[in-house]
Amino acid sequence: MRRYAATLGAAGALLGLTYLLPAFQNYQLATVAAYLCATAGLTVLTGQCGQLSLGHGALMATGAYTVALMQSAVGSLPLSLAAGVAVTTAAGAVIGLAAARLRGPYLAGVTLAVAVVVPGITTMFDDVLGGDQGRTFYLAPPPFGYDFPFERWQAWIALTAALLTMLLLGNLTASRYGRAFRAVRDDEVAARLCGIHVARTQILAFVVSAAAAGLGGGVLAVLALSVSPGAFSLTLSLFLVMAIVVGGLGSLAGAVWGAILLVALPDLTARVTEVFALPPALAQRLEGNLPLAVFGITLIVVMILAPGGIQGLVRRARSLLPPVPSVNRGR
Amino acid sequence: MRTHVLPLAMLLALVGCSSDPGGGGGGAPGVTDTEIVVGTHMPLTGPASAGYSQIAPATKAYFDFVNAAGGVHGRKITLKVKDDGYNPANTQQVVRELVLQDRVFAILNGLGTPTHTGVLDFLNSQRVPDLFVASGSRSWDQPGKYPGTFGFNPDYTVEGKILGWYVQRNLPGKKVCFLGQDDDFGRDSLAGVTRVLGDAGVAVKQTYTTSVTNVGPQVDAFKSGACEVVVLATVPGFTALTIGTAARQGFRPQWIVSNVGGDYGTLSKSLGDAAPLLEGMLGANYLPAAAAASDPWVRLFQRINTQFNAGAPFDGNTIYGMSVGYLFVQVLQAAGRDLTRESLIEAVEKGGYTGPGLGPLRFSADDHSGYGGLRMTRVTGTVQDYFGPTYETDSEAGPVTEYPVAPPAPPANGVPAA
């Protein structure tokens, strides 16, 4: 019950926020929400069920391209997003079947291949998918008239998707399936002895996580009103993994930190390079590569100083505070 | 669940305190009594950055030169440059940042066919003037659909027709083949070439994508197809890559390169020791040749380059960037002291502009296409220079004709008059 109340509370707060923020910050908030769908799904898969996927960027692409094609063909956004989730779920089931037979580095290898192959498919079927140039599509204006800020409308769409994802994944991880995930992660043999069907559990985790990534990708497409392979490169897949690790592996709150970092870090590094008056040639060279480097360095620093990620730090900070009696009785 | 609320609250705090620069004093965003802020997106990194990364600094240098002379109607021009790495997804992001956060008055010379195509609808919905796009795609010339978008380059079909026309007259009976970028750039260019030579007149047609840096298979296809003339609609990095790959496979056809990927300075730098491979390369262009040291425009731009661009290498990209800057200042002068987005667009549509370019600049209420003519170039002994007359044509079935009007000399002080 508390989970529903918290979701409603967050929805209210975020709704208010979209009225306070200027357009570009609303767009960034929406981008955070889109990434959150994917990082939350990946957290369930990697953090809770112990399977590493380097291909979630490609699953996001699957959702995004489905949304783009559906928008062009039918033009109903709820339908398009649903189709995006459905197609990605199917793709996730196929990869999940393979994944359940593989362990550690082998699984990483297969999902890595997915991340590499999917952008290539857009070039192979370029008359439908548009090659490197991608596809643009039309999104109906907000139902509140043309004067309603479009970015606020996009933020609402993205936040709805993110809150829904968080609620459903929160429910899932608190259920007996969630306990099965963690049992499989901690010790497969022990889990099997407890009567848990390991392969089935792993496939379920992969499918759920793929569906969330598909929704995130679909929302990302809605934000850009276009899809192109460049948005879903291998780098994105790696970024997603880094984000959930830095955010705090294993808890959905960590996924929120991760999603925020994915948007904030490149922005911050760009601002830093603007502040320091670098020689133009050096600034040019840094511009594209610096966010990557900063992300890598952040990952290393966080892993050394706070192996639990940002959420681990938060938890530690909170444990130093005097306990608040009524709220502090968690699970 | 309580654990999920905390990061959300932090997010509220984080984004809530971001600053909003606001609109400033003037009527239009990005315009104050003392400043005009415009923005652009360019590949400063990535597969298309070779050469192109020097365009925005050159435009900036021209603006600094104009600013030092007092600016336009008392306003200084500031150009914000964002790197999109030639990746359409990044372009979406940085153009929104320029328009929504930095509140630029206009987007000037955004570079790239695949990249800029993705932001057309966004810019149109925000009513942001989208001037002089750095690409020859025909998409920019749709006044009904995109009233604020204007091209600069001759469109790729115009160029393709002129290249095809040259081949038909001067290289008759040769087997012609074509390599194009796998987007509107390559497609529009091929449409122009086949408009003149016919579909059967191009024996082998190949495409490449910028995300795959290997053109071995394409070169193989040309070699086994016994191609004698290969027309390249390629960005500079891929022009160099193709010519280099072909040489390694012992294949030396007559190359004819689109103006956007045929700058000798850029290519010779990319090829390094292999630069002699460029000898005899044909191409087309419409701006003064960097090698034409006696051209008054080149002299002017060289002076500005030394003074305001830290003496960066002077090549076709420098001339291109400064020519865009010159045209923008012309348009600002014409728009007058009372500058709004509407008055700016009206000023461009009024047309009648001339500058360093060789062909006619075609701006009117129903033509947003930019330059309409080109002249052939050839590399002879490390010097890329023009030969023959300037040609003009349209992107439809119109004939290719000579354009006899020479560009005027630049104004004495280098700044267009009001």
UniProtKB/TrEMBL annotation, chain A:
A cellular-component GO term for this protein: plasma membrane
CDD domains associated with the record: TM_PBP1_LivM_like
Keyword rRNA-binding attached: no
Localization of this protein: Cell membrane
Mode of membrane association: Multi-pass membrane protein
UniProt keyword annotations, A-Z: Cell membrane, Membrane, Transmembrane, Transmembrane helix
Superkingdom of origin organism: Bacteria
Gene Ontology MF annotations: branched-chain amino acid transmembrane transporter activity
Pfam families listed in its UniProt record: BPD_transp_2
Residues spanning the membrane: 30-47, 54-73, 79-99, 106-125, 153-172, 203-225, 290-310
Entries under PANTHER family matching the protein: HIGH-AFFINITY BRANCHED-CHAIN AMINO ACID TRANSPORT SYSTEM PERMEASE (PTHR30482), HIGH-AFFINITY BRANCHED-CHAIN AMINO ACID TRANSPORT SYSTEM PERMEASE PROTEIN LIVM (PTHR30482:SF20)
Annotated protein name in UniProt: Branched-chain amino acid transport system permease protein
Organism: Catenuloplanes atrovinosus
Automatic annotation (TrEMBL), chain B:
InterPro entries: Aminotrans_II_pyridoxalP_BS, Leu-bd, Peripla_BP_I
Comp. bias regions, Pro residues: 405-418
GO MF annotation: an example: transferase activity
Alphabetical list of Pfam families matching this protein: Peripla_BP_6
Keywords: Signal
Domain of life where this protein originates: Bacteria
Stored Gene3D superfamilies: 3.40.50.2300
Chain residue ranges for the region called Disordered: 390-418
The UniProt record lists the keyword Magnesium: no
Domain (Leucine-binding protein) ranges: 36-380
Family, per entry: Belongs to the leucine-binding protein family.
Name of the protein described by the UniProt record: ABC-type branched-subunit amino acid transport system substrate-binding protein
